[in-house]
Specification:
With 193 residues, the protein is of the alpha/beta class. The chain contains six helices and seven strands. A hairpin with a 4-residue loop joins strand 3 (62-74) and strand 4. It comes from Actinoallomurus acaciae.
């Protein structure tokens, strides 16, 4: 049997999970990760009063103050995805530049109840030329919008995929990651031409 480097050293891919405060990034990383995820969740304290808006997410009691980290292996393709969840609060956005170094792509989580919370993430990846897709996290009780309605609201390029997901569900999270990988692979010939 011939030796293949991919049998020993799988392709390692860094993926960012981004979006606004409270859209489900930590939950997504936790649902997708095959390992116990690392997270830097801290209790929301009185110090955030007047700084962080809890409008629409009044029951939120913790927040990511640095990053979330998880891993998922796609054995049949010899790929290991390293997932980095970004902090959503504006005061921690300075970390996004560091976290995005070496990232192949990103998932921007969106909450249709507070769609404006993902504008900065979309702008961030567009300005840095990092391919991404938008994953609408379908919260219980939220109105359902069609992908074309979300695309129009976000003024997205037609080439940016939009998928619906449930960040709490492992199957949904991994399906979203597979959609991103397909998008990244489809973009390779266009970028090299």
């Amino acid at each position: 049997m011939a030796y293949k480097e991919s049998d020993v050293f799988p392709t390692q891919v860094k993926i960012l999970i981004a979006g606004g405060f409270g859209v489900g990034k930590t939950t997504f990383v936790g649902a997708a990760s095959e390992i116990e995820p690392l997270n830097t969740e801290e209790l929301i304290t009185a110090a955030s009063i007047g700084v962080d808006s809890l409008s629409g997410i009044e029951n939120k009691s913790t927040t990511t103050v640095a990053l979330d980290f998880g891993r998922i292996t796609i054995e049949q393709h010899g790929i290991v995805l390293y997932l980095f969840g970004t902090p959503g609060q504006e005061r921690f956005w300075f970390m996004w530049d560091e976290l995005s170094a070496g990232a192949l792509g990103a998932i921007v989580l969106a909450d249709t109840r507070r769609l404006q919370a993902c504008f900065e993430a979309v702008d961030f990846f567009e300005h840095r030329g990092i391919d991404f897709l938008v994953a609408v996290n379908e919260f219980d009780g939220a109105f359902h919008y069609e992908p074309d309605e979300v695309r129009a609201a976000l003024e997205l390029d037609p080439r940016v995929p939009i998928v619906m997901c449930d960040a709490r569900d492992t199957r949904s999270a991994t399906t979203t990651l597979r959609s991103l990988i397909r998008h990244l692979l489809a973009a390779v010939p266009a970028q090299s031409a």
